[in-house]
Amino acid sequence: MRLTVTTGAAPPHRRSPFNPIARALEKCFEDWYHPQYYGLTRDVSQLEKSIQRLRARPPEADFDDVRRVLEANGWHQAGQKGSHVSFTKAGEMPFTIPLSDAHKVKRAYVQQICERLELDN
Q1: Structure pTM?
Q2: pLDDT tens across 46-65, in order?
Q3: Of 63, 76, 95, 121, which has fewest CB within 10 angstroms of its CB?
Q4: Given the DSSP bridges, would you call strands 84-88 and 95-98 parallel, antiparallel or unpaired?
Q5: What is the three-class DSSP state of 81?
Q6: CB–CB of 92/113 below 8 Å?
Q7: d(CA 59, CA 105)
Q8: Exposure pattern of 54-66 as b/e (b: 16+ CB <10 Å)?
């Protein structure tokens, strides 16, 4: 005889009222399993992680985070000359971001980007 144990919230039509062991294990699983504790409530996209990192206003932000957030908001990288990268958007004034060593963006420019994109709201 093979015993099948189901854990978690199985649909009512799949729960067996005749299997007290499975019902007891299911109840124990529901009592100790907290998805929020394990960080399993929802997946966080790379864009959301980049926004969170920029909102923290680090001394130097990674340019990939800045580029990802700008492009998600409709900005396009127009070009780069040396260490200066230009972004444009239709109907908006273009702006240039100077990069420091290792493709980092200084806090002052991260602050301007957050204000311009209204990331804090």
Answers
A1: 0.62
A2: 888 999 999 999 999 999 99
A3: 121
A4: antiparallel
A5: strand
A6: no
A7: 8
A8: beeeeebbbbebb
